[in-house]
Give the backbone structure.
Amino acid sequence: MKQAIAARTDIGMGTGKLAAQVAHASLKAYENAGPDAQREWKAGGQKKVVLKVKSENDLFELAEQARREGLPHAVIRDAGHTQLDPGTVTALAVGPARDNLVDRVTGDLSLF
Amino acid sequence: MKQAIAARTDIGMGTGKLAAQVAHASLKAYENAGPDAQREWKAGGQKKVVLKVKSENDLFELAEQARREGLPHAVIRDAGHTQLDPGTVTALAVGPARDNLVDRVTGDLSLF
C-alpha cells in the first residue's frame, strides 16, 4: 500500500509551501479512501512518495486516470494567501491503494 | 484553528523527503485530535504552516511543551530507507488546535 503525491514544479513553490500543499493533498485523499485501505496503509507505516508533475494539464490528466481506476485521490487548490494566485492547483495525491494500482497512474513521474 | 509542522533543518533533507515527513506528521497529529477539533479545522480549510526547527533537541522540547499544553501532536521518525539513518527524528506536528494555543508552542519558529 502506498500513497503518491505529485506536486507541480512549474509554479515556483518554496520548500515550506510545497510541503504544506503535499500534506493537504495527502490528508484529503486519505479521507477519500475506504476504512480498509486506510487501516492497511497505516499498519504498513503509511508509505508516501512525493513526485514531480510539470504542469496543471498533466496533473489533471493524472487525476482523471485516478478517477477512472477508482482510486482515492485529491486535487489541491491553494487559497492564495501567500506566494500563489488564489485557486492555483498545486498538488494531487493518489492512494492509499495497492502499489501497482498507484503506479498505473503515477509510475512515470520522477521523485521530488 | 491551525496546525503547525516543524521540520528539522540540520539533517539535509531534500524537498520531497521533507514534504513526505511533514505529511506524515500532519496526518498523525490530526488523528490524535478530537473529532471537534478535526471538524472545525477542516471546515476552516485545514490551515497548515511549515516551520523550521534547528535540532532534535529543540524538536523534543517543543513536543514536551505540546504535551504539557494538552495539544494533539506527533513526532515522526524516518524509517531510513533513503537519505537518513533509520530512526532519525524529522518532524513534529502540533494541532489542529486554536491558533493561540499552537503559537504557545511553535510561535518562536520561523517559516520554512
Observations:
- The domain at 2-106 of chain A is CATH 3.40.1490.10 (Bit1).
- The mean pLDDT of chain A is 95.
- Residues 75 and 92 of chain A are 5 Å apart (CA to CA).
